[in-house]
């Protein structure tokens, strides 16, 4: 894990160093004043200002450029995206509408259609956004069968791992409504659900669902979001757990490249007895979680987030009460034409308060879990173009994503030693209205 974190930090430093080195050769504003009609110089200056996070200067440079060369479509698209990032939805819609009637490349047309829909939605007082995903997954050990041959008492354990496939689906929807008075404050309600239906290993089947409602308030560079939440989890067709509670998050933008965040959440967890778990209400109790971290954007095409979270469970039976600490990092890198790479890793320490007599009368359980994921995604229309198939309205705003995952859990109770490798392929459709 230390090696992984070292590589993550090193990659971030290298990206920042690259951006800093490039800045040494930046076009200066004095050069722009001396050569106001140099189109390439203005375009390069705009690109460099975006990398620096100075979107206002980039916008001004592109506006000058388009006055001199109004038919430069790629520059106008760039201008529209800068206006979108500046939250100037009216300006972005104006430029994108002009481009919608221009003879663009397929990739440019996709960008125009995507951001025109987003800008139209964002300019409304009430907005609906969401996504629908469906796909398949194969897992080497979906129910996390133990790696150990014997338990603490030397009794044999079932180590018959079963490779299995699954159908996966998920959906999210979010409604936002602006609070009168300006300032960008808004109310929101969002819902999410996920389904995992195994082909053979029924005990790994699950359905989750949840609703979250709250408000977001802006105080210059500070953003605060209080919320309430309701969640449910069903295992193999049986209601296993219901959570009710709320929390709040805060984000502070130190500069366009660096944001810090923190949050806290508390929920009461109500467990039911199911065929795969007969413990039931002994697990009931409050779960509190606190999180803090940082998001870095070295360039407009990359984002890195690192966080630390602490969880504290107070169950009715102390055998199920625990403290946990988790460190996690994730990265998003855009690689052109709507393609992207996602990477994430986490390490979790979880220590229980008292021994569980089902496994030992004297040994208190301690778990260590490592998870990592790598995924690649691309617009479906882009992939269809490569095999000479023209996209349609149905395939627009749809991404094809493939990913691989690894999980390893070590415990001082051998019953809980397990690992798995899995892979998935998903179609993800995003919408905005």
TrEMBL record:
Keywords on record: Signal
Segments of this protein annotated with the region Disordered: 139-160
Signal sequence coordinates: 1-24
Segments of skewed composition (Polar residues): 142-153
Gene3D superfamilies the record matches: Tetratricopeptide repeat domain
The keyword Transmembrane helix belongs to this UniProt entry's keyword annotation: no
This protein's record includes keyword Signal: yes
Protein name: Tetratricopeptide repeat-containing protein
Source organism: Hoeflea prorocentri
């Amino acid at each position: 894990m230390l090696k992984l974190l070292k590589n993550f930090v090193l990659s971030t430093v290298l990206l920042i160093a690259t951006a800093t080195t490039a800045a040494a050769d930046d076009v200066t504003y004095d050069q722009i004043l001396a050569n106001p009609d140099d189109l390439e110089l203005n375009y390069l200056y705009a690109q460099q200002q975006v990398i620096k996070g100075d979107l206002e200067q980039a916008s001004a440079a592109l506006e000058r450029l388009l006055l001199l060369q109004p038919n430069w479509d790629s520059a106008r698209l760039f201008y529209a995206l800068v206006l979108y990032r500046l939250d100037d939805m009216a300006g972005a819609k104006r430029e994108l509408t002009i481009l919608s009637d221009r003879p663009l490349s397929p990739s440019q047309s996709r960008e125009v259609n995507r951001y025109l829909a987003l800008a139209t939605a964002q300019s409304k007082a009430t907005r609906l956004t969401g996504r629908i995903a469906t796909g398949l997954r194969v897992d080497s050990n979906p129910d996390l069968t133990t790696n150990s041959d014997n338990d603490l008492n030397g009794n044999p354990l079932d180590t018959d791992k079963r490779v299995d496939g699954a159908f996966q689906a998920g959906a999210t929807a979010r409604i936002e409504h602006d609070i009168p008075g300006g300032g960008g404050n808004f109310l929101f309600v969002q819902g999410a659900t996920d389904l995992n239906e195994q082909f053979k290993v029924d005990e790994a089947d699950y359905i989750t669902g949840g609703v979250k409602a709250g408000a977001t308030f802006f105080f210059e560079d500070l953003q605060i979001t209080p919320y309430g939440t309701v969640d449910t989890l069903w295992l193999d067709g049986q209601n296993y757990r219901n959570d009710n509670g709320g929390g709040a998050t805060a984000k502070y933008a130190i500069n366009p490249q660096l944001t810090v965040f923190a949050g806290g959440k508390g929920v009461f967890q109500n467990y039911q007895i199911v065929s795969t778990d007969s413990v039931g209400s002994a697990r009931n109790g409050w779960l509190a979680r606190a999180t803090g971290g940082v998001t870095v954007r070295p360039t407009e095409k990359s984002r890195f987030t690192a966080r630390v979270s602490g969880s504290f469970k107070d169950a009715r039976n102390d055998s199920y009460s625990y403290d946990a600490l988790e460190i996690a990092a994730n990265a998003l890198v855009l690689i052109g034409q709507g393609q992207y790479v996602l990477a994430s890793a986490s390490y979790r320490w979880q220590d229980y308060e008292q021994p569980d007599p089902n496994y030992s009368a004297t040994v208190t359980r301690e778990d260590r879990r490592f998870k990592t994921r790598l995924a690649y995604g691309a617009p479906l229309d882009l992939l269809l173009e490569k095999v000479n198939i023209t996209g349609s309205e149905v395939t627009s705003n749809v991404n094809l994503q493939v990913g691989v995952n690894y999980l390893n859990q070590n415990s001082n109770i051998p019953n809980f030693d397990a690992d798995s490798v899995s892979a998935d392929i998903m179609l993800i459709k995003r919408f905005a209205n």
